[in-house]
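pinging the channel bc i need a second pair of eyes. not urgent but kinda urgent?? the chain im working w is below, pasted from the shared doc
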Amino acid sequence: MKDLFGKAILDFQTNNSPEDLITETSISEADEMSVEYLFRSFAEMPKIEQKAIQLSKGKVLDVGCGAGSHSLYLQNEMNLDVKSIDISENAIRACKLRGLKKAKIQNILDLENEKFDTIILLMNGTGIFETLKKTPIYLQKLKSLLNPDGQILIDSSDIIYMFDDDQDGGKWIPSDNYYGELTFSISYKKETENDFPWLYLDFNTLQNAANDNGLKCEMIFEGEHYDYLARLTL
């Protein structure tokens, strides 16, 4: 793993000539993303992220924390006890440089013997599930980390809009797998990391998966472009 996303984050944090990230998916063409966006303030965040932060309480776990912007607000402005984890070594280095007290290189599936009141997964939080088939593994792990009255706050998008219309008014959707299963490629400073899996879940599919794994799932907020914030509870 080249950890290009993390390299871009650390380059920005340390003023090491950061450049734009180039992202491409199996159903979309290359797109430029400014790494500065990952360092946004609360006021600059989408309403879905603001809502998730405002609903956070107690002991918080930020899964896939990236540059740590959500965690920093929770720690510094809301005075919450926040643990921030990411599989990117470079991103966690940047988080520590930004002042996060409990930032750790950690795969969520390897986290044991801890309980949280709030677990947040933002910026398409379902992405880390990789595929629909693996979703129950991640939901069971998240469930095991919840206190009895805890909550999981997770966002995603129904990407059905990205597929072409057919003659009957429906959509041309691949039949061999769930349409929200994509592969991503990232390019940064002439290096490329290819084809890592990333999952977008429509709300009904998330809700069904949650119910199958002993979790209640409710829609908390709907965005303006097929995106939503959900809350999962025991």
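so The chain has one domain: 45-182+201-233. and The mean pLDDT is 95. — does that match what u expected or am i reading it wrong
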